[in-house]
Amino acid sequence: MTADGGVETVRAGALTTVQDLGRPGYAHLGVPRSGALDLTAHRLANLLVGNPESAATLETTLTGCAVRVLAPTTAVVTGAPCPVTVDGRPAPWGQPVRLRAGAVLEAGAATHGVRSYLGFAGGVEADRVLGSRATDLLSGLGPAPLSDGAVLPLGAPSPAGGRAVPDVAPWRVPGPELVLPVGYGPRDDWFTAEGLRTLVTGTYRVSAASNRIGLRTEGPALARRREGELASEGMPLGAIQVPPEGRPVLFLADHPTTGGYPVIGVVPAAALSAAAQAAPGTAVRFTPVRSGSVRGSAGVPPPR
């Protein structure tokens, strides 16, 4: 059930989408999980306005967005730090604010990181597809990315309402280097010993071609022991796939569920929120971990 009102898009920004916890369990149908790339920031936004973590938020990309609320509500901006204004006047980032009907909430360009999250009491009530309101850019499921003038309904807020949280420590401001733990496999045997060393000793940077599907890297190519492609096989969230040019691609929430390029390793899901906030040019370092620390999320074998 929706409350009277909703939000009207005043400035859509570079890419603003509706996101929730995604739609897991449909990979066998070719549908990725999707959902918020920075799940920590998404969950925090919902916590601050009194929603369950499953409620939908708006995920912005680099340039933020602005929306007009059509009825009184409580809102918050989390994720990538950015200037926040209400009707042009400064408002706090990371703290809930009460908005009158007609007020314009704007999340400006990210000062650190990539993606900010706008949470509203009651959550964004876009139509569910396969149980989720998330926008999936790969399959095209879910609501379209926001465009200027688009209106989205909001749900009825919880009777408890939002609550102030004195510290936003659960979400960390991105640092100058993205360190990603990786467990080797399942196709690390397609790479030479030198290629495996290069993965964890090479200097990589986040490519500007990165998106919700994958974090692409720039840096040294990984030497292959075997050429060609595999028969198409399943691709888990966090897989590090290596296309023919040899540079690692880290699969994020909208990744394809199958692929034929070898996966040299898998990054555990807990590390992917940080990857979602790595801006183009950010230094990337892969560090090997024991299989037990990633098996719960990826099930990859130990380094060989």
Verbal overview:
This protein is mainly beta. It has 2 domains: 2-155, no CATH class; 177-293, Cyclophilin-like (Cyclophilin, Beta Barrel). The chain is 8% helix and 29% strand. The protein has 3 helices and 20 strands. Strands 12-19-16-17-14-13-20 form a 7-stranded mixed β-barrel. It has a 6-stranded antiparallel β-sheet with strand order 7-6-9-4-1-11, with no helix packed on it. Strand 6 and strand 7 (89-91) form a beta hairpin. The chain is elongated and about 60 Å long. Residues 292-304 have low confidence and may be disordered.
Would you tell me the overall average pLDDT?
90
Structural class: mainly beta
Main sheet strand line-up? 12-19-16-17-14-13-20
- Tally of separate domains: 2
- State Rg: 20 Å
- Termini separation comes to 53 Å
Q: Looking at the structure, what is the overall shape? A: elongated
Q: What does the main sheet amount to?
A: 7 strands, mixed, barrel
Our count of helices gives: 3
Assign a percent range to the helix content.
under 10%
Proportion of β residues?
25-35%
Query: What is the helix/strand order?
Result: EEHEEEEEEEEEEHEEEEEEEHE
Low-confidence stretches: 292-304
Number of DSSP-assigned strands: 20
Protein name: Biotin-dependent carboxylase uncharacterized domain-containing protein
InterPro entries: CT_A_B, Cyclophilin-like_dom_sf, PxpC
Keywords: ATP-binding, Hydrolase, Nucleotide-binding
Organism: Streptomyces qinglanensis
Concise overview:
With 304 residues, the protein is mainly β. The chain contains three helices and 20 strands.
